[in-house]
Write a structure and sequence with these properties.
Its main location: mitochondrion. The protein is an alpha/beta fold. About 50% of the residues lie in helices and about 10% in strands.
Length: about 725
């Protein structure tokens, strides 16, 4: 056969609309059809021999081409093409069954116990600090039985304490912890839990679902959908933003349940100031500077303490105990600490006495629905959530204020706060273990990562829903694929709550899985050897970051211990050392400025990775634009380096970029080696440099230094004359 003729006829086969329709009828969408054809063409063109029947068909097509009486037609290749496609895509043989399993168009039907009762849905709508959650909790406490579902361990712990303080026995259930109100470990009628841990089988009189707007969260939204549709309670009290009312109403319409909306107004006034802070010298007691990166936290906190002020620090990766201690320190009227530096972690879960919120920046790193990282302006919802923490009802401040650090950002912040919050349009869904097991039954040779991919590609969702991002799940599935585990255990390991950007935590999960697969219990001694416990108080930022990672490892152990009790038997001992580690981290955070100085003084190559005095990752939009004008695409690259590039390469890239940026910015300011040295030693920042330059220009313009300048010029000319002579 002529290879040229065969290739020409194969391409003709691929382009025929009738063949593409036949492929679609057999489960081959455009993407699968294309992949199957590439493989089929490669098989024919590169094989030394093909089956006799296929050879005859190809011969008839090639010999009959161009003749009136055709011996064969390219359409005759379809049975051979389909057979080949089924070899590389085994799911084609059971496509109908797989489509039924991955049909997500009727999630309410997944919860027959909830559908068997008529539930009353009450939506408590209002902004931050409006008392909406308070009213829902009052009903929770007065009920014979109840469940509170919150987004954070801190919130669940707060309700747990409030309930027991009010003599309402309440248990605490989080992914890592079970605390019983009764000494004999008998379950109490009330439960406060993180939302992923709520039971859809246990009947309650009242259920409270907090922060319902998170039903749209690309990663965790499925947990709110599951709670809303599946909780078996006579009354469901939903708390959150008004933006979620329409979606909740539509979802409840599909279950035949009506929604009663109760609206609340903010209890204390909140004022957007007409002026920016502009300098940390203008800070007052009760101020909170909000940053969107750890690097900014480090930079701002050091600058504040350089001015002789003490500040508390709160950011997302700190252990809950440390966050509470820092909040307690800031709230204590007798403590000299009157300033708070925090990320948007203060948006929920902590009761803080804040007078004024100051946005250090209004851009932050985010992850979109596709799992892609972006640097974008904060949304109206995020801005309101953070700004609303100022002037908390019942605190010493009866009125809240909000402003920005930089003048350029203030106009934009006002626009953001005045915009209506975008309505929540869809609720998240996630494949269940049972659905994945049924997929695995039909596709026994597929990896868990491939099973998830196939599930998502075949899934059908109603317009009210979307499939949550499963990149973290797939990352862990690929990481432990080579370890021999049964499917259910593998699924549990892949749903473990960890930050995949933390190499130490990911490596530990891998070791956990390997030890588990050998059926060897992970003992307390084994864990201490791996984490090198006991650990010392951190001497620099790098050590503090490592301690936070070790705390996450202990959390991971406790999380797995409640799912595999026999294999992770020492949860009590691990919880004890985790509390000790929490105390060590608290000491480190209290001395954070000393750690920053130590990190900057150190010659270690990793120092640049965790400390950025000169170029914080989250800048204002105007800063980013100015830098990009001078450095082109390099500013965008810097913003993504810390997120996208692992290990030593990331540290080198960041170091090289910041060095180049520092030189460029020094040139742009027209300052010489003194400014360079002050910046390098951390005695001066770019912000202070700009402020000094601005003040000098203002004073020179007002004539304050005019006489001195002339004298200096005269003295300078005299000196020059002497040297010439």
């Amino acid at each position: 056969l002529s290879t040229g003729e065969v290739l020409k006829n194969l391409n003709k086969f691929y382009k025929r609309k009738e063949i593409q329709r036949l492929g679609a009828d057999n489960g081959l969408d455009a993407r699968l059809f294309h992949q199957a054809f590439i493989s089929f063409r490669k098989y024919i063109m590169e094989s030394s021999s093909v089956s006799a029947d296929l050879h005859i068909i190809l011969n008839d097509i090639c010999c009959g081409a161009g003749k009136v009486c055709l011996l064969g037609h390219v359409d005759d290749l379809f049975p051979f093409f389909l057979r080949h496609a089924k070899q590389i895509f085994p799911m084609l043989d059971c496509m109908d069954d797989l489509r039924k399993i991955s049909d997500l168009r009727l999630p309410p039907n997944w919860y027959p116990d909830a559908r068997a009762i008529q539930r009353k849905i009450i939506f408590h709508s209002g902004p931050t600090n409006s008392g909406k959650t308070y009213h829902a909790i009052q009903r929770f406490l007065s009920a014979k039985s109840g469940i509170y579902c919150g987004p954070l361990k801190l919130l669940a712990h707060e309700i747990f304490q409030k309930s027991n303080d009010a003599n309402v026995p309440c248990d605490l259930v989080t992914g890592e912890e079970r605390v019983y109100a009764n000494e004999d470990a008998r379950p109490a009628p009330h439960i406060a839990c993180t939302i992923e841990m709520c039971s859809t089988n246990t009947p309650y009189e009242v259920a409270v679902i907090d922060e319902i707007q998170m039903i749209r969260d690309p990663a965790r939204g499925w947990a709110w959908t599951r709670a809303l549709l599946g909780l078996c309670a006579e009354e469901i009290h939903v708390c959150g933003e008004a933006a979620a009312i329409d979606l909740v109403t539509e979802l409840m319409y599909t279950t035949g349940e009506e929604v009663e909306v109760r609206n609340y107004e903010r209890l204390t006034p909140l004022t957007v100031l007409d002026y920016a802070l502009e300098s940390l010298d203008n800070l007052r007691p009760g101020d909170c500077v909000v940053c969107f990166s750890k690097n900014d936290i480090y930079s701002v906190s050091r600058q504040i303490e350089a001015r002789g002020l003490e500040c508390a620090v709160i950011y997302g990766s700190l252990p809950p105990g440390t966050k509470l201690e820092q909040a307690k320190k800031f709230n204590d009227p007798n403590d000299p600490c009157k300033i708070l530096v925090a990320t948007d972690a203060i948006g929920m879960g902590l009761n803080l006495c804040i007078k004024r919120i100051i946005f250090n920046s209004i851009v932050k790193p985010t992850i979109n629905e596709k799992g892609e990282k972006e640097i974008d302006t904060i949304t109206t919802s995020q801005a309101l959530q953070i700004a609303g923490r100022a002037g908390r009802y019942g605190s010493s401040f009866k009125q809240g204020e909000v402003t920005t650090m930089h003048r350029d950002d203030l106009v934009q912040l006002k626009e953001i706060l005045n915009e209506p919050v975008c309505p929540v349009k869809a609720a998240g869904l996630h494949p269940t273990p049972e659905q994945i097991e049924m997929f695995a039954y039909h596709l026994p040779d597929a990896t868990l990562s491939n099973l998830i991919d196939i599930f998502v590609s075949l899934s059908q969702v109603d317009g009210l829903y979307f499939v949550c991002n499963i990149d973290d799940f797939k990352f862990l599935a690929d990481m432990i694929q080579h370890i021999p585990l049964n499917l259910r255990s593998r699924y549990v390991f892949c749903t473990a709550p960890l930050n995949r950007k933390e190499p130490f935590v990911c490596t530990t999960l891998l070791k956990f899985a390997r030890q588990f697969s050998r059926n060897e219990p992970l003992t307390f001694d084994w864990l201490c050897r791996h984490t090198k416990w006991p650990l010392a108080v951190p001497k620099n930022i790098k050590e503090l970051v490592h301690l936070e990672a070790v705390h996450d490892v202990f959390d991971l152990y406790l999380w797995l211990s409640y799912r595999f009790m026999d294999m992770f038997p020492d949860a009590v001992l691990v919880r004890d050392i985790q509390k000790k580690l929490d105390d060590i981290i608290q000491v480190g955070v209290c001395n954070i400025t000393k750690l920053i100085r130590a990190s900057q003084a150190a010659a270690a190559p990793g120092a640049a990775e965790v400390v950025s005095q000169d170029f914080p990752l989250s800048r204002t939009k105007s800063d980013t634009r100015a830098v990009s004008e001078r450095h082109g695409a390099r500013s965008t690259e810097a913003l993504s380096i810390a997120e996208d590039v692992p290990g030593d390469r990331r540290a080198k890239n960041l170091k090289a970029y910041r060095s180049a940026t520092r030189q460029e910015e020094l040139k742009s300011h027209g300052h010489g080696s003194l400014a360079d040295r002050l910046l390098r030693e951390g005695l001066l920042t770019q912000e202070m440099l700009r402020q000094l330059e601005s003040e000098w220009q203002d004073q020179h313009r007002n004539g304050r230094y005019g006489l001195r300048s002339k004298r200096d010029d005269q003295n300078s000319s005299k000196e020059t004359g002497k040297k010439k002579k």
